[in-house]
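Sample intake sheet
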Amino acid sequence: MLSAVRSPTSAGLADIIRQATNLDTIDFGQCGDVLNFIMEPNPEEEYAEFLDVDHQVYSTVSHIIDSNWLWLPTRPRWSYFRDNRILLIERRSPIHEASFEHLSLMFNLFLHGFIHDDNPVLTTISMNSQLSASAIPDMAIRMDAVTENYQSYGVLVIGECAFAQDTDSVLRRIKYEIAGDPEVLMVILVVIDEYQPYRSPELSSFYSLQGDAARSHDQPIVIAGHTWCHLASVRFHVWVRGNEPINIDVDNSELQACGTLFPNRDMDAADTMIEKGMVMMRDRIATICQKAAPGTDIAALQDSAIAFRPDWNHLLIRLKFGVWDIAYHRYRSWYNSPS
């Protein structure tokens, strides 16, 4: 049972890993470091990068997580960059989920308009699901078309959120995801920053939960004189595909836009770029529809109007609840930590 990994001995951890893999030649130390990070959450460390990780170690950890996820304090998200031998482990949080749960609702309404009996294309919005052999984005929109004489699979949109972590690590994962699906049409990155990295109180003594906690996303959550979460900004970065695969390192106003949702809203450019990506999604679906079922009338699909009308106020409400949840999680982790 994986819960035994909370305080593993070297021999016990080796037995757990051998039982999972039936292998004797493996780096037990690396596996133990990763599993300890997962099993003993530290609110000051929402993610961790493990360097020079062998693929066998990655496969072992993935297998243990998948087989024992019910025992985990929280199910983590991981990415393995095989060429660089880097394993990135992230803890999911309500802040990560808020942005793309909101966007997925809007994309779902948009894609629902393309469903009809003659359309063989199926689109699926997935959250925290495996995209490739070793990448799990916050959100992905996939497209499948299977008929008697035609098969097609592709990723239309990738969405990622960076919160309480190094943005460079998220950008590295996005590049990896694009390389795995170079035909992806749009990438959306949401960067949520705090005023300063979270630090737990130094003294592990009891404080009650009484206090004037903030009731808005733009106010710090302060309990017993300590700030548990304080959002500084929420920014969107949007890229769409041109003639070549998306390159997030190149500045091109035709294919890339930035927007700020908070503290001062300026989302027009980002909204316009997302709408451009939605037009590209519509056109890709129409093209695949015709290839999969020649003779299908796609005129109505091609002519359908696209309008991106986001309710960003609703997202801010979601973020407010996410901030409360994060603050409480941090307080509880600190309070339950050893003195």
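Comment: The helical segments are 10-21, 28-39, 55-68, 94-112, 167-180, 268-292, 299-303, 312-336. Confidence is low (pLDDT under 50) at residues 1-14, 204-211.
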